[in-house]
Design goal:
The chain is mostly beta strands. The protein is built from eight helices and 45 strands.
């Protein structure tokens, strides 16, 4: 019988208790060293595959965290923002569900220069943190369902993973089908969020179906339906054509407004089909297909200041004059074949994904504040609507050979290929402008083509080939030396269309095309020394890389930009790290110090003339910090975890735009990077009767203040206050079922992680804009819920 089958025979109550208790005994705030879902709950060993082979997490010679899927479920973790906040040294921009998959907002060890307010549109630069679903490098923000574990690897990982990274890698590993027995689970929850007038619910079904002794299927189906909390209080009344109603006539300034409460509704469908064929212990074939569809009614973001009538905004009120829904759909299919060759294990991983989505954004505040757009903006009842879309499609093939021998040398070698196509679009409309123009100047009606004033389409292709590997020499029983190398060769193409079609014949559409290619070699060196039986010292030097590309801006015609905006180069890091990890008197500890040199940092911005979405290379940055985790038990019934991370991330030279415009001075703190982060957890477990156990849990998180953006202008710059979030969970567990009462964000902290300032998108009555497009990106308010699971 397999280890996985043995674990499945344990009671639900025992597994749940083990997940919660080990989550604190081995992790920080339920995450740092959580137990692997398929590991023996009574064992001290935590098994991970971060180095492409199964090994104890204490033998991994760098800082890694792991969270079991059982613990994610037992802790009632609602989304990725909550999960990642629980891991020391990891920060995240919490945008809620709207556009949650448009932009990867994970930040590890302070590697970020992008504005925290980004997220409405897909950017060109790839994230500093790579994410995987099994072996597929994709950021899709799937629901956290039926996971074996989540691993968080800090530092560059290009010598072990096909998709390189600068700051680290997050791996979401799914539970495999099990041919040994039929099993399943039915679960659900109901919850209420502060600010909402309704109750949200979720439903989950998992089935494991053996088809034969060597073949099994696994099915997941999940539905989440959450009411909103955000009240849109300045919405225009619209007519049947979607144009603001004009009660005093088209040429008058009068408008009608309405309120829509709890507008940011969330509706998610998630499904997965897994298939496992394992005819013997030498061959294994694993297939997975995942699908998710999201529909979100608006932003979980509240507006600052007052509207144009002088009414201050209350909590959870948004001043947009239009609704801002979003939707997306993602398909992912993967096939992994594993062959045991005796001396090594050969793995082939093939995957394909197709991810696309769209959203409507309020742009009226931006137009109102940008006075240079007044020549066509100032008309009654202005309504600037930006309809944005993104698409990401890729085929990935990776082949790895991992040694199995017990000699003095271990190795991992691999080849990686990726063929990716990405698209970002924006169609902007001045809704109602054509109707007003025809009434205002009927003799020149043909001069205005319609309401669309901006059209932008960016098509990108990227092809990457890489060879990577690591060789470890076990010089003695206690000393191991590792060298890693990565060679890559890639090519990218960018074709961009821009057009301002509002006025007939005034501008002609412009296309710009540009191609670029890069190849280079990266290195890694590591020393690991077991200075005691359960204690490890390690030191690492590793190089990270992020690909460059082209902005494809036009160099002539009405939309011409400076040629220096045409292309942006790759950026890279040199990561120096040393740490210790192990156990002492039953307490697990992990401490690391790091120093990172970041060269030519890429950040997403816009060109100065016509606002092309563009990437530029910035100044150098130095990042240094400490990470510390401590986990143990006060008593047999009470376990604790503590984590702390210190990050000092700042530019070490003045930052200029590609055309020489000064942006910020040397020493500016990188945005979205808290200097201090704390994690804390307590787990308490006690038998109530022979049939029932009680499990209680407290989780806490704190981050210090952060910067909103790299900018000295008040239009973007703002210091965001630090905040703390506390969660409580109480669970009653029986043999086949469990029920939990839980509270998220007990003290109802706003937890602001990004801001659109009033100077950027605020109200301007003089321009006819009485709404307000400024907003704070807030964490989920206090949420009270109950969850139930039945296993069979």
């Amino acid at each position: 019988m397999t280890r996985q089958a043995q674990i499945k025979q344990t009671s639900v109550k025992t597994a749940l208790v083990a997940a919660l208790m080990s989550g604190t005994a081995l992790g920080t705030a339920g995450a740092a060293f959580a137990q692997e879902a398929t590991a023996d709950a009574a064992s001290d060993e935590i098994v991970v595959t971060a180095q492409r082979r199964e090994q104890s997490i204490l033998d991994v010679p760098y800082n890694i965290s792991a969270v079991s899927g059982a613990e994610i479920e037992a802790s009632q973790t609602l989304d990725n923002a909550e999960l990642l906040r629980s891991i020391p040294g990891v920060s995240v921009v919490d945008r809620g569900q709207r556009n949650a998959a448009t932009l990867n907002g994970i930040r590890i060890r302070g590697l970020n220069v992008d504005s925290s307010a980004l997220g409405d549109y897909a950017v060109s630069a790839v994230s500093t943190v790579s994410t995987y679903v099994n072996d597929t490098p994709v950021f899709a923000n799937f629901l956290l369902k039926d996971l074996s574990r989540v691993e968080v690897l800090r530092g560059p990982q290009g010598t072990l993973y096909g998709s390189g990274s600068l700051g680290g890698t997050v791996r979401y590993l799914l539970n495999d089908p099990d041919p040994s027995e039929f099993s399943g689970k039915i679960g659900g929850s109901a919850s209420h969020v502060n600010g909402s007038d309704s109750v949200g619910w979720t439903g989950d079904l998992t089935l494991n179906v053996p088809v034969a002794e060597t073949f099994a299927l696994r099915f997941n189906l999940s539905r989440a339906d959450y009411p909103g909390i955000t009240d849109y209080v300045n919405l225009y009344e619209l007519d049947d054509n979607g144009v603001p109603v004009a009660p005093g006539g088209v040429l008058s300034d009068e408008a009608s407004y309405r309120v829509e409460e709890d507008a940011d509704t969330v509706d998610i469908w998630y499904g997965r089909i897994g298939a496992l064929y394992e005819p013997n212990d030498k061959f294994r074939l694993n297939f997975n297909y995942l699908y998710q569809e999201d529909e979100v009614g608006g932003r979980r973001q509240q507006t600052l200041g007052s509207d144009g009538f002088g009414n201050p905004y209350d909590e959870f009120e948004n001043g947009s004059i239009q609704l801002e829904p979003s939707e997306r759909e993602v398909h992912l299919a993967s096939l992994e074949a594993t062959v045991d060759l005796g001396f090594a294990t050969l793995t082939s991983s093939s995957s394909y994904y197709d991810h696309e989505g769209s959203s409507v954004s309020e742009n009226t505040g931006f137009y109102a504040q940008a006075g240079f757009l007044g020549f066509y903006y100032y008309y009654p009842r202005p309504m600037a609507s930006a309809v944005r879309g993104y698409a990401d499609e890729a085929f990935i093939q990776e082949i790895r050979l991992v040694s199995n021998t017990d000699g003095p040398f271990d190795y991992v070698v691999g080849a990686y290929y990726q063929d990716q196509e990405r698209q970002a679009t924006q169609e902007s409309y001045l809704v109602g402008f054509k109707r007003w123009w025809d009434a205002f100047l009927p003799s020149a009606a043909s001069a205005v083509t319609g309401d669309q004033d901006f059209n932008y389409v960016r098509d990108e292709t990227f092809e990457d080939f890489a060879l990577f590997g690591e060789l470890t020499w076990h010089a003695t029983e206690r000393l191991a030396l590792t060298g890693g190398i990565r060679y890559f060769d890639n090519e990218s193409n960018n074709d961009t269309l821009i057009d301002l079609p509002l006025y007939a014949g005034l501008f002609q559409p412009t296309n710009a095309t540009f191609s670029s290619s890069e190849s280079d070699t990266l290195f890694k060196f590591n020393l690991a020394y077991d200075f005691a039986d359960d204690d490890l010292f390690y030191a690492t030097y590793s190089e990270g890389y992020r690909r460059g590309g082209s902005n494809a801006v036009p160099l002539n015609g009405p939309f011409a930009e400076d040629p220096r905006w045409q292309i942006y180069g790759s950026d890279g890091v040199q990561n120096y790290e040393a740490g210790v990890k192990g156990t002492f008197n039953g307490v697990r500890y992990d401490a690391a110090a790091f120093y990172i040199e970041w060269d030519d940092a890429q950040f997403n911005t816009a060109t100065p003339n016509w606002g092309f979405f563009a990437v530029q290379n910035g100044a150098q940055a130095d990042i240094k910090g400490l990470e510390f985790q401590l986990n143990g038990n006060f008593t047999d019934e009470l376990a604790y975890a503590f984590g702390y991370a210190y990050v000092d991330a700042a530019l070490n030279e003045d930052l200029f735009s590609p055309i020489g415009t000064p942006i910020v001075d040397d020493g500016f703190t990188l945005p979205g990077v808290p200097e201090h982060m704390l994690n804390f957890a307590l787990d308490y477990q006690r038998p109530l009767t022979a049939e029932y156990d009680f499990i209680g849990r407290v989780d806490g998180y704190y981050q210090s203040e952060t910067q909103n953006a790299i900018s000295s202008s008040p239009t973007f710059a703002q210091e965001l206050d630090g905040f703390q979030i506390w969660d409580l969970t109480a669970t009653l567990a029986a043999e086949e079922w469990d029920v939990s009462l839980w509270v998220k964000n007990v003290f109802d902290e706003k937890g602001v992680t990004g801001v659109f300032t009033e100077a950027y998108m605020g109200s301007l009555p003089a321009a006819g804009y009485f709404g307000n497009g400024s907003k704070e990106l807030i964490s989920l308010p206090r949420t009270v819920g109950v969850s139930f699971n039945y296993n069979f």
